[in-house]
Write a structure and sequence with these properties.
Elements lengths: L8 H11 L12 H10 L6 H24 L1
Helix pairs in contact: 1-2
Amino acid sequence: MHNICCDNCHHHVACALNRMPAKAYGVSNWDMIKMAVLMFFRSRFLTWGAVLSQFGPFVVLILVIVLSTKLT
């Protein structure tokens, strides 16, 4: 049975890697948390500009919310 909340793309890739003898970065038993962490921290095609464009607006929004609640 497919669960949309728990079975995402990371889960499907981890299942495929577990079915074939894939070992990378010292990991042989894959799960979606390991997949997400490796994609976030070990990605070769990620630049600091891409990190800023991805997470910058969220950080600015959180800062605005935190500062506006402290001022009131």
